[in-house]
Amino acid sequence: MKFLRDAKILVKLAIPLLIVALAAGGFILYARASLIAQSEQTRHIIDVQAKRLALILGLQIDVSEMSVQARNLVLETRDSQLAGYETRIKQAKAHAFGQIDTLGKLADTPERRAANAELSQTLTALGAVIDRVIASAEEGNSELGRDILLSDGNPLRAKLWELAQARIDVLTAELQQERDASEQSAARATLTLVAAASSGLVAAIGAGVAVVVLGVTAPLKRLVRTLERMGHGEIDSEIAEAARGDEIGAVGRAVEGIKRMVAAEAAEQAEMRRRADAAASAERRRARAELADSFEQAMVGIVGAVSSSAVELQTAAQGMTDTASIAAMQAATVAAAAEEAAANVQTVAAAAEELGTSVQEIGRQVTGSAALTRTAAQEAGETTQLVQALNQTSAEIGEMVGLIANIASQTNLLALNATIEAARAGEAGRGFAVVASEVKELAGQTARVTDEITGQIGAIRAVTENAVAAIGGITNRIGEIDGVTASIAAAVEEQGAATQEIVRNVAQAASGTGEVTSNIVGVAEASEATGAAAAQVLGAAAALSDQSGLLNAEVARFLNGIRAA
């Protein structure tokens, strides 16, 4: 509460804007971090898991190629064809070892390294058996080579096949786990963004309302009510806003000064009325005493009474002149105080105008906040473009899976051709037909794996679409923040109206001080008129005294005349 009393209005109104800006920045950073995490997961699937799966499938194809060519070698009766079979066997063998070496580079756990070592050992053993088969074929002993291939080669090939299939099952399970983790991460990010956006919006609105109501509107209303009571003559109420350190405190202190001036003016007017009443009362008592003396002196003689009355009238006129002079001086003092009050009122008017300027500056700051909100919306749009790029990357993964499916289809055609050739060979091609059936099964497994990868890629694309929807929600929240900014601007306009009301009340106070000045001028003029009238009375008393002397002389002459008569 002390901060709301002492901070400037511009600082108070900047608090909700700062909350909005911090919340928007946090939302964008969190969304960007979530998208980067999703991208890392997708990159791991593409660069590591999918590559591992492709290498295992390629290894199976190479092993099948080695077995098929070895069987062709022992079944071939033409010496001219043996070199071609040996070349294909060596190529498939070298390619298979290359696949295992690449898998070793991608191994990141002891389990994977152990599995790769077992694959390498089994492939080495199978290669040694096939080398023995090649040596038997070169010696012309195809029957021995066939026996070696059936007794020693087939178990090793089956074991190698089982090891590769186990690796495929593990990779499939890991891909499923990574897909589930990606979906859960996207759901958590969406929920967090929605909750954080709602909380930030509520906090910004609450802070704005609290600042405007508690820090600006309420104290201004109290000042307006204080001015209204002062206009009705109530000057005893305390002005708590004068202790504030903001612009409203400056206005409150100015109003406090006006209250002191009005109180001083009222006290001076009361003192003037008291002195005037005391002077009139004393004058009435003295007049009654003089009238009693006049009646008493009337017993002495009419002429002496008139003379005494003239002297007393001169004294009363002089007293009235003195009283009028005192009243004129006091009227001048009150007029000076009224002019000082008018100057204070002008100071309050200037402070009110400065408050209006501050309100206009707040309006400009609110406009700047709207610009920040629009910038946040633009950054959210850029984040949406990043998600769309991630979706495009998933589509490229789909193309790679399609390429693997095409390879499986070609392998299936190769197995079909091998089956046809085995059928043509009759009894001698039975073993070749078995190998062709296994190759066909391998192609079918490859197709199923590619279907599973396609489904996982579809799930990833669905997650990215959810991320796009979440970012759209963020954009909508930013639009709501823009609406809050407009509400704050409307509150600023209401603040301007309240400021104009203060200016109007100050103008009324200035009018009141003007009326006080006019009344004091009237009192001064009345005092001057009273002094002039007292001077006229003084002259009349002097004339009456002269006439009383003449009357006394005429009475004496008349009495002398009577006596003389």
UniProtKB/TrEMBL annotation:
Classification via Pfam families: 4HB_MCP_1, HAMP, MCPsignal
Organism: Methylobacterium brachiatum
Annotated transmembrane regions: 193-220
GO biological process, one term: signal transduction
GO cellular component: membrane
Listed InterPro entries: Chemotax_Me-accpt_rcpt, HAMP_dom, HlyB_4HB_MCP, MCPsignal_dom
Full protein name: Methyl-accepting chemotaxis protein
Coiled coil: none
Methyl-accepting transducer domain sequence ranges: 302-545
Recorded family membership: Belongs to the methyl-accepting chemotaxis (MCP) protein family.
Signal peptide: none
Residues annotated as domain HAMP: 214-267
Family matches, as CDD domains: HAMP (cd06225)
Molecular function in Gene Ontology: transmembrane signaling receptor activity
Keyword annotations from UniProtKB, A to Z: Membrane, Transducer, Transmembrane, Transmembrane helix
